[in-house]
């Protein structure tokens, strides 16, 4: 009687062990491990994009504080930059959200709008000699220029990681594994008019206006 009970106790664990052994033999062959690796690659690339966006966000308050020292500076531009930065800061994208077209598009749109108003701020500031000659502004300009370049570079790397991942989940036989285990297509950063070049955040200190 005790032997039968012992067999019943051991049997489920034996079945479980056999199942685990079987899956360990099958999964590598069906591309599961590759999908996990590529998925982690996308997540890592995304974290680098976020780091650069955060770096830019951290630079903006100092720029606004320095520029607003000009008494007659166009305050509406400063307000727009500050409000846009706040709006962007409230938008967070998790790893799961990278597969959500609506959330990803909204996030990219907000970041691109911040790039636009920031560039506009710097262009307007060119009309103020006391701002252009400020060493702090020059330093911030250099840092922002470098950050915009890094943002463009990290977005490119992210798109490359997504392309490799998306191609894999659509290829046979890994597409079967992807459907079984819920690997979903990731979203790309899409191009916008003028995005073929890095946003211009340079002050042209030697620029002379043409007289008409």
Overview of the structural elements:
With 212 residues, the protein is mainly alpha-helical. The chain has seven helices and no strands. It has a domain at 48-152: de novo design (two linked rop proteins), CATH 1.20.1440. α2 runs antiparallel to α3 (75-89) and α3 (75-89) runs antiparallel to α4 (101-125). The radius of gyration is 26 Å and the shape is elongated.
Strand content: under 5%
What is the count of β-strands?
Answer: 0
Main beta-sheet annotation:
none
Radius of gyration: 26 Å
Number of helices: 7
Question: Spans with pLDDT under 50 lasting ≥5 residues?
Answer: 195-212
What CATH first level of the domain at 48-152 would be assigned?
Mainly Alpha
Structural class: mainly alpha
The CATH architecture of the domain at 48-152 can be named as: Up-down Bundle
Mean pLDDT: 81
So what's the overall shape?
Answer: elongated
CATH names the topology of the domain at 48-152 as de novo design (two linked rop proteins)
What is the helix/strand order? HHHHHHH
CATH 4th-level superfamily of the domain at 48-152? LemA-like domain
Helicity range of the residues?
55-70%
Distance between the termini: 108 Å
């Amino acid at each position: 009687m005790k032997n039968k009970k012992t067999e019943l106790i051991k049997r489920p664990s034996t079945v479980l062990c056999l199942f685990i052994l079987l899956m360990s033999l099958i999964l590598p062959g069906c591309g599961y491990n590759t999908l996990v690796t590529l998925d982690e690659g996308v997540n890592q690339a995304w974290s680098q994009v976020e780091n650069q966006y955060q770096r830019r966000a951290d630079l903006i308050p100092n720029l606004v504080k320095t520029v607003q020292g000009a008494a007659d500076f166009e305050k509406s531009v400063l307000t727009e930059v500050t409000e846009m930065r706040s709006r962007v800061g409230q938008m967070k994208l998790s790893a799961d959200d990278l597969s959500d077209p609506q959330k990803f598009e909204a996030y990219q749109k907000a970041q691109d709008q911040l790039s636009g108003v920031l560039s506009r701020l710097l262009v307007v500031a060119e009309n103020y000699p006391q701002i252009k000659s400020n060493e702090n502004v020059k330093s911030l300009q250099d840092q922002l220029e470098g950050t915009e370049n890094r943002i463009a570079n990290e977005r490119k790397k992210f798109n490359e990681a997504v392309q490799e991942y998306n191609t894999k989940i659509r290829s046979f036989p890994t597409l079967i594994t992807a459907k079984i285990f819920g690997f979903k297509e990731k979203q790309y950063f899409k191009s916008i008019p003028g995005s073929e070049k890095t946003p211009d955040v340079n002050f042209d200190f030697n620029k002379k206006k043409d007289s008409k």
